[in-house]
């Protein structure tokens, strides 16, 4: 959830020519990379170069207008971040964050 929220935030903040490889790499590096060994991190960085363009993703999401996309993505980010915090609180309460 943290990863997808970060991707949506980075897509929202990028311009219409932003590269999904850069956006996704940044989101991965700031969220999931800390949980993965070196080999997985490198594989992810290679795999992100197969992603379609930012505009193609927005079209698949039925967001054709840049202003509409930024508004929708902003709302999605807020909801995902709220949900992530709720889940993290539950995991912390149940002592599930430090499992091997």
Report on the structure:
- The chain is an all-alpha fold and 100 residues long.
- The chain has one domain: Glycolipid transfer protein, GLTP, CATH 1.10.3520.10.
- The protein has five helices and no strands.
- Helix 1 runs antiparallel to helix 5.
- The longest helix is centred in the C-terminal third of the chain and has 28 residues.
- The radius of gyration is 15 Å and the shape is flat.
- The chain starts with a helix and ends in a 7-residue tail after the last helix.
- This is Glycolipid transfer protein domain-containing protein.
- It holds the Pfam family GLTP.
Key terms:
100 residues, mainly alpha, Glycolipid transfer protein, GLTP, 5 helices, flat, Glycolipid_transfer_prot_dom, Glycolipid transfer protein domain-containing protein, GLTP_sf
Shape: flat
Provide the domain count: 1
| CATH architecture name | Orthogonal Bundle
Any idea of the CATH class?
Mainly Alpha
Protein name: Glycolipid transfer protein domain-containing protein
Domain Glycolipid transfer protein: 1-62
InterPro entries: GLTP_sf, Glycolipid_transfer_prot_dom
Organism: Tegillarca granosa (Malaysian cockle)
Give a brief rundown of this model.
The chain has a single domain, classed as Glycolipid transfer protein, GLTP (Orthogonal Bundle).
């Amino acid at each position: 959830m943290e990863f997808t929220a970060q991707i949506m935030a980075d897509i929202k903040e990028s311009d219409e020519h932003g590269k999904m490889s850069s956006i996704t790499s940044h989101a991965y590096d700031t969220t999931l990379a800390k949980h993965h060994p070196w080999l997985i991190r490198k594989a992810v960085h290679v795999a992100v170069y197969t992603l379609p363009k930012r505009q193609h993703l927005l079209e698949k999401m039925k967001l054709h207008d840049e202003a509409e996309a930024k508004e929708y993505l902003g709302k999605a980010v807020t909801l995902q971040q709220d949900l992530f915090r709720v889940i993290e609180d539950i995991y912390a309460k149940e002592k599930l964050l430090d499992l091997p």
